[in-house]
Design brief:
By secondary structure, the protein is mainly α. A hairpin with a 5-residue loop joins strand 1 and strand 2. The protein has a domain of 79 residues. The chain contains 21 helices and seven strands. Helix 3 packs across helix 4, helix 7 packs antiparallel against helix 8 and helix 7 packs parallel to helix 9.
């Protein structure tokens, strides 16, 4: 096996460790949004009703929940089981970044660096360990664009291997599945338009237009077929298409222009200056990029912008990455909730990381003439080690152990669920849900965590386990047995 692939294996091992180690206890607790996914998955298993779209909790595309259901059927209803699919998607995205960067730049070292930077990114590690469907979005987009670029390149080769047809179909399948991941993904057709436009003009120059048309047609048909079930659902349920988008949009603000500009500045600044303040998403306020990577991101950004003017060999890659970065930022800056927002910006992670690796590789190349090769390699190894150690320390030693993280993941709710599970069935158990949240079948969202831990989302299970959930309004009308176990969920 080539030396480069041994390095890739090592990077995947690092990525896997950082995404799977101690997953049974880190993150602590279980956030109600994760639990809502789990409860829908458990219900789907019990009723054999696996949905394309689950409308509760402002609506969620069903693919991730159905995958979680498969894992729950294998390992049981534990918080870590809900998060394991995220870890797998995260690891496979690291692998995809390597191949995508290799396709964009044709440089194995630059590709390995991009994979390494994503593997050790706190931003990506964090969402690879939470049971949110958003982690699928970069996975599907990275692989979809990789296969699309690969098929377009293969179609231009003189030998024109038939594999380009298969790659076109793969690209459409991967890209189409992304629409089942996260609402922000719906902006990505603009990225595809940029890519197809670029390659259209190149194909026109090279007199291979008919092969380009074949590529594009197979890609679009494959993507369309994959999305048919979701499209049918939205045609029948148009109210679910936008979810909360209209509620949190800057267009609903009294000062939309001002808010848009402020949001843009906050989003641009989250990489190097002030990051997401939500402890579920980040070490509150910490920049999303470790400072050396933040510097290489700025360098890579300048190189990419310069390529547009100079029309050098990086121009095509620069256009794709900058278009991707801009389009992925749009759902973030047009929202007016919790900015800077690392989760809503997750589709920005691949271009940010690739651009950062470009900047890092350029700096390394510039130093080759100034520093002896051995010293430069030693310095690079020290820096890569520092980046790895920083990722581990930030996630496992600082973030995971901070009490704010436990609060952000509702650890107390999990403890209550465990306490209820330990009680005999004969004891009547009452949970007074005194917390605010989106209504889910008559009960505020925070109750979802306890329901998942006890497997009492369905009324049948509540009756079997002698557990009742009450709102404060119902409390006044309830007569409790003498031996009742009563707990408040605040």
């Amino acid at each position: 096996m080539k030396k480069e692939y041994w390095w890739l294996v090592l990077i995947i091992i690092i990525a896997t460790y950082l995404r799977v180690a101690n997953i049974e206890s880190v993150p602590p607790g279980l956030y109600p949004d994760e639990a809502m996914n789990g409860n829908n998955a458990l219900e789907a298993l019990a009723t054999d009703d696996f949905k394309v779209f689950y409308p509760e909790n402002n609506g969620r595309e069903g693919l991730f929940i159905n995958i979680q259901a498969l894992f729950l059927s294998l390992f049981g209803n534990e918080p870590w089981v809900l998060r394991l699919p995220s870890a797998i998607f995260g690891i496979l995205t690291v692998l995809g970044i390597y191949f995508l960067t290799r396709e964009l730049f044709k440089d194995k070292t630059l590709s390995l660096l991009a994979a390494f930077l994503l593997a050790t990114s706190f931003w990506h590690i964090d969402f690879s360990r939470i049971g949110f469907r958003a982690i699928m979005a970069p996975f599907f987009l990275v692989w979809g664009i990789y296969f699309l670029l690969l098929s377009l390149r293969k179609a231009r080769e003189p030998s024109r291997p038939k594999s380009y047809i298969l790659y076109s179909i793969f690209s459409g399948i991967f890209y189409g599945l992304g629409f089942y991941s996260y609402i922000a993904y719906r902006a990505t057709p603009i990225i595809i338009i940029f890519i197809l436009a670029l390659y259209f003009f190149e194909a026109k120059k090279g007199a291979v237009l008919k092969y380009f048309y074949r590529n594009a047609t197979l890609f679009l048909i494959s993507a369309f077929i994959v999305t048919i079930p979701l499209n049918i659902y939205f045609l029948e349920n148009p109210q679910d298409f936008l979810g909360r988008t209209s509620q949190i949009s800057v267009l609903s603000s009294e000062t939309p222009t001002k808010d848009f500009l402020v949001n843009t500045l906050k989003t641009a600044g989250m990489f190097n200056f002030v990051g997401d303040w939500n402890w579920r998403h980040n070490i509150a306020g910490k920049p999303l990029l470790f400072w050396p990577i933040g510097i290489t991101f700025l360098v890579g950004l300048v190189l990419s912008l310069r390529s547009l003017i100079k029309s050098d060999g990086l121009k095509t890659a620069a256009i794709i990455l900058l278009a991707w970065l801009t389009v992925a930022a749009a759902p973030v800056v047009i929202s007016n909730e919790g900015l800077p927002h690392a989760l809503r910006a997750i589709l920005m992670a691949p271009p940010v990381i690739i651009i950062s690796s470009l900047g890092g590789w350029w700096l390394f190349s510039r130093l080759r003439g100034e520093i002896s090769p051995n010293k430069l390699k030693a310095a690079a190894l020290v820096m890569l080690t520092l980046i790895t150690v920083e990722a581990y320390a930030s996630y496992f030693m600082i973030w995971a152990k901070n009490p704010n993280t436990a609060d952000a993941f509702s650890e107390d709710y999990v403890k209550l669920g465990v306490e209820l599970n330990a009680l005999p069935k004969e004891i009547p158990k009452f949970v007074i849900v005194n917390a605010d949240g989106v209504d889910v079948r008559g009960m505020p969202m925070p109750a979802q965590t306890v329901m998942f831990i006890t497997d009492t989302f369905r009324n049948e299970e509540r009756a079997n386990k002698n557990i009742r959930y009450l709102t404060p309004a119902e409390l006044m009308e309830t007569v409790f047995p003498e031996n009742a176990f009563i707990r408040y969920l605040n």
